[in-house]
Fold this sequence. Notes:
2 strands
Amino acid sequence: MPRHDPVTLALHWLIALLIVAAYAASSLVEDGPGRAWAMTLHGSLGLLVFGLSLLRILWRGFARHPAPVPMPALMARVAHYAHVALYVMMVAAPALGLLALWASGQGISVFGLLALPSPMTASRGLAKFLEEAHELAANALVALALLHAAAAIFHQYILRDHLLERMTPGGKA
């Protein structure tokens, strides 16, 4: 079974791990003594997701892809649109989060090492709108990622078409 190239594999799994970590950190962001630390972690992880997702999209244009696995046309079309939606949400969710932070007049600290000040004038209404859009996009991203994982498992263990092996480290699922 032809596999994806090592850069695609690394970006795929690193972005997946970062999305899980950023989403988990967001649950710590509520109120409490670790709120500032959790916000810094959440924002920093989100910026990594954003940057690596842009790199993944760019790399996708250059990388060689394995031949498509034979499947019904409708299934292939759904898979294509699901991948497009995943890529859109991988960029949109962190971008909306960053814009929401900047619209509130705050900068972002990247792992406490680099500060990115807000280039925007503070606007409470815009910040609230962007914060809600960020939350919606992040929830959509996680839902799409879960559906993506379920589809990969379905392909591997129900259809037995070895699709998952193309993206797993070592080539075996």
